[in-house]
Amino acid sequence: MKQERLRILHLEDDPMDAELVLLTLTSEGVDCEVQVVSRRDEFSVALERGGMDLILADFALPAFDGMTALAMVRQKLPDLPFVFVSGKLGEEAAIESLKSGATDYVLKSRLSRLVPAVQRALTEAQERSKQRQTERDLEVAHAEIEKRAEDYRNLFNSIRDVIVVADHNRTILHVNQPALQDIFGYDSPDVIGQSSGILYANDEDYERTGKEVFDVKAPVKGKLVELHFRRKSGEVFIGELYAMKRLDRFGNVTGNISIFRDISERKKAEAALRESELRRMQLQLELVYAAEIQAKLLPRVYPQIGGFEISARCLPAKQVGGDFYDWQQVSPTLINLTLGDVMGKGMAAAMLMATVRAALHAVTLYNRPAQAVYLAEKALYEDLENSESFVTLFHAQLDATARTLSFVDCGHGYVFVRRQDGAVETLNPRGLPLGVQGDEVYQEGTVRLGKGDVVVLYSDGLVDAKPELELTHEALARQLAGKKSAQEMADALIALTGKPDPQPDDITVLVLRGL
């Protein structure tokens, strides 16, 4: 029988991340249809409409959050599997999400866990549903066992866990045939009249459960234990045994009832999850080391160059990022300045960032900006093409004696000059980003800088952090009024973002001020 298509509601505001999740599911054979929503009203309408098998949700969105979404789902659909798929989820948040009813969580940087997590969530939901149905069925069967014997037998045989009814000596009296065949491989005649020990893997477990659970004088309260059982074929498997006393209508103990469930697949899934968590912790440790290394790649000391001062800040969205700034002292009066932004964020962007920085270092010391960028693009083109990525870049050379800045803008655009009188100038020309076209001829521009003039370079993360502020060049330039140093100016621009958590993208600022 063809399996029905899995219906998924995905709460995600990043279309690229949503597409990546869908691609991950389908590439691993999950037949699904995914509805993507990004706002609370859309999510609420989808819940009212119903019909979904699973919910995937980002932990934090600009105007909504995953914990609120989880609360809405648990109030309306308490058993619906809910998996967080987030770019950033700390340990405390992860624990809190699981306590609040989330089935699992997957980091966007570890989407290899997505399909196992989805499968485990669906399996657990099915098991919970089966268990609750079993308990309800057993309660009905016990209440009506004498007056509705036929209904009891039909219900008894429909249960997918193996139910064994035995006397005081643990001799099997009744058993539900379909489940018995499915789990143990026996037919009813094979076990009726036999000791229930035929189902156990070893005599020690059989004897122990007899003493702990099936003692006639012991309390009536049931007990759940994990044991090893044996199929007719001789195969041993791990299962759950829920044992209870069998009572008559007056509450007298007449034997016992055992419910057997095969949990071997669940145990495998739990072991896989533990292994996955170990790998996640190892990756987290590696990210910490990577962040330390990346921080050390950025310049540690501001250059001393007559007539100018420089300040810069870089805040990765994750532990590591794709933004970078750099400078090289060519001579006492010449200095190269660079600000780059690799497409994306996280470890992949950080690795490309280090490659781009190394390539630029190799060519910028003895070449003018246009030639240096051309040589770097030639060296990087194959790597960028293979990684399906690109880099926006602003590279310049400051001549402190002539007070001129010669520059090349490779698709960056986030740069302006604020004159001492407050006037704002945009720098042209602009070319294509590195990696977009292999034969780009980069045009070099020049701007003269007087006392009090300021050049501001920044990445798009500065704008994306607070899109409602509409941070144009002019709006940013107004924030510099009254600031007396490049450091104050850089700090003022960073402060505009409010340091959002989660931070949507890497944020980098470089300020060059004429003295």
Report on the structure:
The chain has 15 helices and 22 strands. It has helices at 15-27, 40-49, 66-76, 91-99, 114-143, 149-158, 177-184, 188-191, 203-212, 264-297, 347-364, 369-386, 461-465, 473-478, 486-495; strands at 6-11, 32-37, 54-57, 60-61, 64-65, 82-86, 104-107, 162-166, 172-175, 223-230, 236-247, 253-262, 308-315, 323-331, 334-342, 391-399, 404-410, 415-418, 424-426, 445-448, 454-458, 507-514. The strands form five sheets. The protein has a five-stranded parallel β-sheet, with helices on both faces. A five-stranded antiparallel β-sheet has the order 9-8-12-11-10. Strands 13-22-21-18-19 form a five-stranded antiparallel β-sheet. α5 (114-143) runs antiparallel to α6 and α11 runs antiparallel to α12. The termini are far apart. The model has no long low-confidence stretch (mean pLDDT 87).
Q: Report strand order across the widest sheet.
A: 2-1-3-6-7
Tell me the span between the first and last alpha carbons. Answer: 78 Å
The percentage of residues in β strands lies in 25-35%
Radius of gyration: 33 Å
Q: What is the average of the pLDDT values?
A: 87
Number of strands: 22
Sketch the major β-sheet: 5 strands, parallel
Uncertain segments are none
Count of helical stretches:
15
In one word, what is the shape? elongated
Q: What percentage of residues falls in helices of 4 or more residues?
A: 25-40%
